[in-house]
Design a protein that fits this description.
The structure is a single chain. The chain is α/β, with parallel strands linked by helices. 45% of the residues lie in helices and 9% in strands. Strand 6, helix 16 and strand 7 form a beta-alpha-beta unit. Helix 5 packs antiparallel against helix 6. The longest helix has 47 residues.
């Protein structure tokens, strides 16, 4: 028994020794693998996710969480980065959709270098562009991986890159123009070979200059071809309503701003003449406005049926123009024409519905000969002995008040219903320091521009009148505004203006005159281009899309 037990003990001891000798190397190897494995896993998470546990914590919890290092083949890593890029691009596009100033091409060029916005091109080397874009947005973490290859697979999502419509490109260009104008308010002054707006006659000369340059680069106007003269594409050019016909003619023959492609147009012109409608459609003394109203309704129906543009914006990117007193009434023929469209009116009367933020005040210029030759110019302030001058008929409610207080009552304030025989109207304006410009039946008066032409400081006597281009020009810097109730105090008001202040206003009026001059052909910054600029400013405040219009 003893020898048997000894044999058993000997066998057990031998087996234990063998087991011990087997387990020691196994434990050493397992420890090494565990240490090395935990280090590799911990680096991978720390480098990309610093908020996860430290290496020691990761090693201690490895058995419970079963976290193992994942080895990603190079090709799989590149595909994952491309997927990430697609996600980033998707977020970026959503941001553009809600950002007002984001545009299709996000150029870092100076504001002067304004180009038509272009959609991102899909070219043959699209894979190279994709890799460059990923490098810029993903940062150094992904740059090394991208440098390992020169060609990345283009996904179907990238092949179907969105194609922007012509309208979307136009709206993108307008967004860039708005941004450039805002930046110009506090930026450096831009050079110009012809004229650099400067001085107190402008509310903000640098912003106006930038806006004008943007207009010259971008603005396209489509003139509807429908309609026949004399009601359409025609207007008077030698009367008090001459600016109506003058603008229609210039717009019809213009080669810079007019486009024959309506898809490229920012604005659409309804080329009917209110003065011609009154002359040929209205039955004299009938007091029946119906025929004029029906003519305008029929015309809008024609263009809105033939083209999609009126219905697309409900008329918000369309404009009509009228210097006749019945211009505002004509616009009421079509509700959206009055409510949404830009109305270019001489009769800019806010008490009758003129909206300065939407409508345009149009200068009334009486071109008796069809041109301004011989009208422009006058002596210096020191050669103007007369304080104030007016001559005109008793039109409207204001002029009778003026004549009641001042007709033939003061040598310094010459007020006449009819000029004495042999006295020249324009010579009197050139001799006077101040020219009185009271409203007639309507708020506008051709004397305002006549005063500027002759170097006389205009005195605006009216209520509810919005002077032309007043969104750009500071009229108080070169004119005097007298409320109707202050007509009895007219001389005292003018005498209280110091000689130094008068000289400043007179010189500023001469500077502002260029914006009211009628030229054939038109010149930069003249009245034709200033009317277009006023339209351009209103178009900047309207956003048109394929689903409708917004402001």
């Amino acid at each position: 028994m003893a020898s048997g037990n000894d044999g058993l003990l000997s066998c057990s001891s031998s087996s234990s020794l063998k087991l011990l000798l087997f387990m020691i190397p196994l434990l050493v190897i397992s420890g090494c693998v565990s240490v090395l494995g935990s280090r590799n896993s911990g680096w991978g998470f720390i480098s990309r996710y610093p908020w996860l546990p430290s290496p020691a914590t990761a090693a201690a919890s490895a058995a419970m969480t079963r976290v193992k290092p994942v080895q990603v083949p190079p090709t799989k890593e590149k595909e994952r980065l491309l997927d990430l890029h697609a996600t980033v691009v998707g977020v970026h596009r959503r941001e553009e959709a809600v950002s007002e100033d984001s545009v299709l091409n996000r150029s870092s060029s100076p504001p002067l270098d304004v180009e038509v916005a272009q959609p991102p091109p899909v070219a043959a080397n699209a894979t190279e562009k994709v890799s460059l874009n990923i490098s810029k947005r993903a940062g150094p973490l992904f740059a090394a991986s991208l440098n390992e290859t020169h060609a990345l697979p283009v996904t179907s999502r990238q092949r179907r890159r969105r194609q922007y419509t012509t309208l979307e490109k136009l709206e993108a260009g307008l967004r860039r123009a708005r941004s450039a104008i805002r930046e110009a308010k506090t930026g450096n002054r831009t050079t110009d070979p012809d004229y650099i707006p400067n001085g107190p006659i402008y509310w903000n000369d640098k912003a106006f200059h930038r806006s004008y340059l943007e207009m010259e680069k971008q603005l396209n106007v489509f003139v509807y071809n429908e309609g026949e003269p004399p009601l359409f594409h025609n207007g008077p050019c030698k009367s008090i309503y001459s600016m109506e016909g003058n603008f229609i003619h210039r717009m019809e023959t213009d080669s810079h701003f007019r486009t024959k492609d309506p898809e490229k147009a920012h604005l659409f012109f309804l080329p009917f003449s209110v003065a011609m409608l009154v002359r040929f459609v209205y039955v004299r003394d009938s007091h029946d406005f119906g025929p004029i109203k029906q003519t305008v309704i029929d015309y809008v129906n024609v263009v809105s049926t033939k083209y999609p543009y009126w219905n697309r914006s409900l008329g918000a990117d369309h404009f009509m123009l009228a210097c006749h007193d019945w211009g505002p009434e004509t616009s009421f023929s079509v509700p959206y024409l009055h409510k949404n469209s830009i109305r270019v009116l001489c009769n800019a009367n806010t008490s009758e519905g003129f909206n300065p933020s939407k409508d345009v005040s149009f200068p009334e210029i009486n071109l008796l000969t069809g041109s301004t030759e011989g009208f422009i110019g006058g002596p210096s302030p020191s050669h103007r002995p007369q304080l104030a001058f007016f001559a005109g008929g008793l039109h409207g409610p204001i002029r009778p008040i003026l004549l009641e207080h001042w007709e033939n009552k003061d040598e310094d304030v010459k007020v006449h219903k009819y000029l004495p025989k042999g006295v020249s109207y324009y010579d009197m304006m050139r001799k006077s320091r101040y020219c009185l410009c009271p409203s007639g039946y309507e708020v506008a008066s051709p004397r305002v521009v006549e005063a500027l032409y002759t170097g006389c400081v205009p005195v605006l006597i009216s209520d509810h009148y919005v002077p032309p281009f007043s969104d750009v020009l500071n009229w108080k810097s070169f004119s005097v505004e007298v409320p109707v109730g202050e007509i009895p105090n007219l001389k005292r008001i003018l005498m209280n203006i110091s000689p130094r202040q008068y000289i400043k206003m007179q010189r500023r009026g001469v500077q502002a005159r260029r914006h009211f001059e009628v030229n054939s052909p038109p010149k930069r910054y003249d009245v034709f281009n200033m009317i277009l600029h006023s339209l351009w400013l209103r178009r900047l405040n309207v956003r048109v899309n394929h689903h409708g219009m917004g402001k």
